[in-house]
Amino acid sequence: MTQEEMLAQFEEVGKAASTCTRCDLALTRRNVVFGGGNPLTPLVFIGEGPGENEDATGQPFVGRAGALLDKALAENGMKREHIYITNTVKCRPSLVEGNRVKNRPPRQEEMDACRPWLQQQLDLIKPLVIVCLGAPAANTIIHKNFKMTQERGQWFDTPYAMKAMAAFHPAYVLRMKGEAYDKARASLVADIGAARKKVIELKKQLAERPPDPEAEQPTPKEDAQDPTQLSLFGEE
Ligand code: SF4
Questions:
Q1: Which residue's C-alpha comes closest to atom 6 of ligand 1?
Q2: 92 C-alpha vs ligand 1 centroid, how far in Å?
Q3: I want to staple 37 with a disulfide (CB 3.0 to 4.6 A). Which of 84, 115, 142, 209 is the partner?
């Protein structure tokens, strides 16, 4: 598949998702938040679900959590166009408390219903590295019953990318105070830096791998060595 064909297909999937009614979140959402950034990247971030600001704008990771993520990316020399970012569910999970509509974590059945959209995104992007922001994404991508306290920052093999790890969700970091906030923020920045380094390391490994004469077409990982992607992650 050429890059143009991939992008056209990606857009088609996004269009199809924009009218999805596979779960009850469709009843309360304002916008489907499919994802944002660069689908040609080797580095994908997956969060939990859209919040109030994302639901209102249709864009992922806007508001305070998005601003913190942008700062953490910038401290590692990256911008949104260096990554693709999406969520385990594409519509806002919410609940009404008194006269307020509040965010809530997605339910398992909602994540299960939405998984085919995430699967199609990952099948097309073929990332080398996935960063799961928070436990719901890590449960989906890495393994069930993921323990953030013990397993955050570790690398795992997954069927969705060569390597995946979990980092603190920026919204979780923002709930911390004082020293705890400083530590959680530093950990998010460090984990994003480690993910960038992992992409560079995997690209080097793939570039050094001898070509397989049996292969009729590039494997997803070889395919991911597109020069436009290489330019996003400079050698160190
Ligand atoms: S959360 Fe996912 S499965 Fe549910 S309606 Fe939205 S796009 Fe469809």
A1: 91
A2: 9
A3: 84
Confirm or reject: Cβ of 85 under 6 Å from ligand 1. no
Rg of the Cα trace of the chain? 18
Q: How far is CA 7 from CA 12, 77, 114, 167, in A?
A: 9, 25, 21, 28
Do the domain assignments include residue 234?
A: no
Successive 10-residue mean pLDDT values, the chain, 236 residues: 95 98 97 98 97 96 96 97 98 94 94 97 98 96 95 97 98 97 98 98 92 58 46 58
Q: Which of 31, 117, 118, 119 to mutate to test the pocket of ligand 1 (most atoms within 8 A of CB)?
A: 117
Q: The tokens of 34 are what?
A: 């499919």
Strands 84-87 and 36-37: antiparallel
Whether 235 is in a domain gets the answer no
Ligand 1 binding pocket includes 20 (Cβ within 6 Å):
yes
Indicate which CATH number applies to the domain containing 139.
3.40.470.10
Domain ranges, residue 132: 3-229
Q: Model pTM?
A: 0.91
- Verify whether ligand 1 is closer than 6 Å to residue 111 (CB atom): no
Count up the domains in the chain and report the number: 1
Q: Based on DSSP, count helices (H) and strands (E) in the chain, helices before strands.
A: 11, 7
Is 107 within a domain? yes
